[in-house]
Design a protein that fits this description.
mainly alpha
């Protein structure tokens, strides 16, 4: 009887483990979203400036933030 209970308990735990979806790294997802928001802000600032040099700098910063967001997204999964 004891063995049956042990087998039943093990089967129950195994079925619960199978139902648990794969976890994701929410910290990495949050970092990616933050970098995406920064990139959007830089792009908006670049669109609103009339200085060509400043626009280029802001566009480069936006590109860097997008690259950081891509890297963080890759680490999230």
């Amino acid at each position: 009887m004891k063995k049956i209970l042990i087998v039943a308990a093990a089967a129950g735990l195994a079925s619960l483990a199978a139902c648990n979806p794969a976890t994701t790294n929410t910290t990495a997802e949050n970092v990616a979203e933050s970098h995406e928001a920064n990139a959007t802000a830089y792009e908006a600032a670049a669109d609103n400036t009339s200085n060509g040099a400043a626009e280029a700098v802001l566009e480069n910063k936006a590109d860097m933030e997008e690259n950081k967001a891509d890297a963080a997204s890759a680490n999230a999964h």
